[in-house]
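Work Package 3 (structural annotation) set out to generate three-dimensional models for the target panel prioritized at the project kickoff. During this period the team completed the workflow that converts sequence records into C-alpha cells, so that structures can be stored uniformly alongside our sequence database. As a representative example, we reproduce one entry of 315 residues exactly as it appears in the project archive.
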Amino acid sequence: MSHTSETLINPEVRKGQGKILRRFVPLLLVSTLAGVTYGVVWLTNPSGQEAGRGSWRAIGAIDSRVSPTGKAIVFSYQGALWQVGREGGTMTRLTKAPGFDAEPVWSPDEKTIAYFEVMKGELNLIDAQSGGPLKLPQKITGGGKLFFHPKGKKILGNFNRPETTSRSLAWLDVVTGTLEQVFDPPRAPRVFCVSDEGTQIAFAFDMDIAGEQTGVNGPQMDLFLVPALGGEPRKLTHFPSRIFDMSWSGNQLYFSSDVGGVHNNVWTLAIDRPERPRRLTSGLADEDRASLSADGRWMVYTDNRENATALAVRP
C-alpha cells in the first residue's frame, strides 16, 4: 500500500508548522527590508557621513604624519602621497608614479619627505612642496615606518642589508647611502621610534617565537630603550597587550594598543614613570598612528569610526 507525504504528516504537526511559518515570514520581510535599506545607504554614502554636511573627513587616509611645525599633514591615500593643512582644506597630491606609496616622514626642515614604494620596497625622497623626486646615492630597499634624525642627514628604518638582503634597523646616511646598524647582531623590531634629540631609540618586542603560532605566548610586549648609535638595550617596562605603532615627543612615548578592549586606542607613558600608562582616546573604533609636532602641541592620528579612516587632530 502506497502513501503520499500528506498522509504521513500528523495534522497537529502540520498545524504547528503553519504557525511557525506565519511568525517567521514577517521577521524575514523586516530583515530583508533592513538589509536592502542599509545597502542602499552604504552605496550612496559608504563613509557613513551625512551628505551635504560640509567636507568629508573619512576618506581612507593612512600612515599620517604631522609636520614638525604642526602646520601640515602628509599621508597615503589610494596608493599616492598627499598633503593637507592641519586645519583641513584642499588636498594636494605629491606622488603620481605607478605603485603604492606609504610610510611618509617629514625632514626636520619640512623641505623633504621620505617614503617607501611598497610594491618594490624602494625608499624615495621627494620635495615636500612640489612632489618632485630627489636623488639618493644608491638604491635602498626596506619597509615599515621611517624617522628622520633631528639633524636631517640620516633616516632610521628597517632597511635591507646589501650583503644578505635581510632587513634590520639601521641609520641611512642620505648623502653617502651607507647603513649603520643599531643592533649587533642586527635585528628588525617592527615597532620603534627615536627621541627628539636623536640620542635614544625606543622599541617593542612581543613574546612570539619563530615557528610557533602568533600570540600563543600571550599578547604582551616588552618596551626597551637603546642608544641611537647602538649599545646595550635597557628594559623600560612590560606592557600587557600588543603595541602597534609608536612615536616619541618630549618625555613621553605615544602608541596605539587594544589593551582592555576590542578597539585600538592611543596611549602615552612617561619615560621616567613607565609603570603608569595613560589612555588618551576612547572612541568606539580604532584610533591609530599618532604623530606629534616638534613642540608636542599638535597630535594627529587616524580614526575609523566613520568606516573609512579619518584624520583626527587634537592639541
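The chain has two helices and 23 strands.
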